[in-house]
Amino acid sequence: MSKYENVIIIPPGQGMMTASEPGVDSTSGDPLAADGKVAQLAKQWPRHESVKKYTYGTAGFRTKAILLESVFARCGMLSALRSLSFGPSSRSDAAEGSCVAIGAMVTASHNDEPDNGIKMVDPDGGMLHEQWEVYATDLANAEESKVCDVLRTIAEDRKFNWGLKAKVFVGRDTRPSSPHLCKLLIDGVEALGGEVVDLGIVTTPQLHWCVAEYNEGSPNFTVADYYKALSGAFRALIPDGTQLDLLTVDCANGVGMVSLRALAPFIKDILPMELRNTNDSGLNENCGAEHVQKGKQFPAGINPEADSGKKLCSVDGDADRLVYYFSDDKFGFNLLDGDKIIALCSALIVPLVREAGLTKQLTVGVVQTAYANGASTNYITNELKIEVQCAKTGVKHLHHVAASYDVGIYFEANGHGTVMFSAKAKTLIAEAAKTNAAAEKLNYLITVINQSTGDAVSDILLVEIALCSLKLSLSDWAAWYSDLPSRMLKVAVKDRTVVKTANAERTCTSPKGLQGAIDELVAKVQDGRSFVRPSGTEDVVRVYAEGNTQVLADQLADDVKAAVSQFC
User: Fold this and answer.
1) How far is CA 22 from CA 19, 35, 162, 400, in A?
2) DSSP-derived secondary structure for 425-471
3) Which of 34, 109, 145, 209 is 20 to 30 A from 231, comparing alpha carbons?
């Protein structure tokens, strides 16, 4: 559990602001009064009638930008409450009454350019707590006249003092709609008297990093500090005089190009980079990590013949996903996705823990989802001899399980992932680093890695360190194992909730008989594996299947799909 998680409840009416305190603009001294700024802002930006229901999920709120104006104003209000709920900041340089900071990011990640969205970030740099996802959903769907009532209910449920001043870090991506929506977000924070730290155009992971560093008390928590910290540790881990091969980066016409341009001068003598897809329009259009990983194809801006033999990678629209790939005459397109990256990171980090003599003091584990290719899991388990645990689908579930280890490594196949080090691990590694070279490397890696969330920029540096340290080319890395052929399908059903799962979604517990039918089908296929899970967003059941040939994987997926239709 995060040290910032609070569960204490203050009874209604306690801690209410007076007219002289921050955020009060009403004659009653009540920040949620009918004549206050909050009520006025809710009335100015009414809920869009065409949307049946807004839902805050793993990706936050995300849909067409034109449908989100009311949501952004209200999320600003909720962000202020979330900050207030943690009480005063422990930073020595914090202004009197200033609260623990949270973050709010304006982005729709790998979605198309007309979309937008918002993600809120908790004080440790992690994703918003699930209870507050419920609050966010309730607030976004409230009638305009009920917004203050919903906020008051939340306030009465949580621990905070109205007399304090909320602090919210905000950032935005490069979408044309982001400046306007970000202004509404800021208006919502300020309507409750909160202070906004506007980071401007940043990647989502940079916002996470800044929030976490600020709340940890670091004097260096700005975006400029981010570049200095990561590049400094990167330089320390690459042998003097080394110049790595040119890295060609598909920036998805997104905010990654801004970040990588800013980072490049710090490391250009070690890691030269050529940035492609750096236009002001065409965000994620036939490019980016999502396009490359899902389609298993080169992005626009990369020529398989002209770029043959080059070291290539793609980030997504908000630069929190990364995949590597290359082109050669023998195989054509060669993808090194999140499954390959997690194996590479494990092969770098876990031996360092062993060489540092810390295996008895620290728990180490790798976390994947059921969608991880079986060949990846087998390689990590059998070849690298590292424990692999399966988590439910979704970054927040992976992050939570990884946090249970002292050194937790997690990646999704889509290229979103990171490595987490516990406070205990950081302390022991720092002490051992005084006399042990492996521990010293780990100590620098702790700085290179953005531990609060998956970060494509940070992960590029991590991959390059691993390739250099292990003396691997991309083709060497790709040869570690071959993915088992797989197929994903979805089955339209009347009610997806009839499908229940357990064992990190790998076992279907309802409807009765479906798992038995799946087991029978899987038993007929060499290297067969299949599972089903209900979608979190639409009335479909998702089917995943593997086999030792593509024909068998496709057939198994079709057969399991038919079984789902029969039982559902």
Assistant:
1) 8, 16, 8, 35
2) HHHHHHHHTTT-HHHHHHHHHHHHS-TTS--HHHHHHHHHHHHHHTT
3) 109
Q: Tell me the per-residue pLDDT of 525-547, one tens digit each, with 9 for 90 and over.
A: 999 999 999 987 678 999 999 99
CB-neighbour burial class of residue 64 (10 A; exposed 0-12, middle 13-18, buried 19+): middle
Strands 332-336 and 311-315: unpaired
Give the pair of three-digit tokens for residue 321: 């996903």
Which two tokens mark 48?
């869009």
Within 10 A of 91 (CB to CB), how many other CB atoms are there?
18
Dump strand ranges (E) for 186-256.
195-201, 247-250
Radius of gyration of the chain from its Cα atoms, rounded to whole angstroms:
24
Cis peptide before 511 (omega within 30 of 0): yes
Do 244 and 307 belong together in one domain? yes
81 and 177 in a common domain: yes
Report the distance separating Cα 530 and Cα 534, nearest Å: 14
CA 278 centroid distance within chain: 22
Q: What is the mean pLDDT of residues 396-405?
A: 95
Task: Indicate if 409 and 546 belong to the same structural domain.
Answer: no
**CB 345, CB 419: distance < 8 Å:** yes
Q: How far is CA 38 from CA 15, 43, 187, in A?
A: 18, 9, 9
The domain in which residue 516 lies consists of 486-567
Considering the candidates 85, 109, 178, 376, report the single residue annotated as catalytic: 109
Please give the angle made by the CA atoms of 560, 563 and 568, to the nearest 5 degrees.
125
**Total structural domains within the chain:** 4
Average of per-residue pLDDT across 499-515: 95
Q: Which of 159, 193, 218 is the last residue of a domain?
A: 218
Same domain? For 208 and 150 the reply is yes
25: confidence class by pLDDT, cuts 50, 70, 90: low
Q: What is the pLDDT of residue 538?
A: 75
1 Cβ contact partners less than 8 Å away, ≥ 6 residues apart = none
Residue 31 pLDDT exceeds 90: no
In a domain, 26, yes or no: no
| Structural domain ending residue among the three candidates 334, 366, 399 | 334
Q: Tell me, rounded to whole angstroms, the distance of Cα 499 from its chain centroid.
A: 27
Question: Is residue 109 annotated as a catalytic residue, yes or no?
Answer: yes
Considering the domain boundaries, does residue 384 fall inside one? yes
Model-level pTM? 0.91
C-alpha to C-alpha distance for 183 and 73, rounded to whole angstroms: 8
In this structure, the answer to whether residues 392 and 280 fall within a common structural domain is no
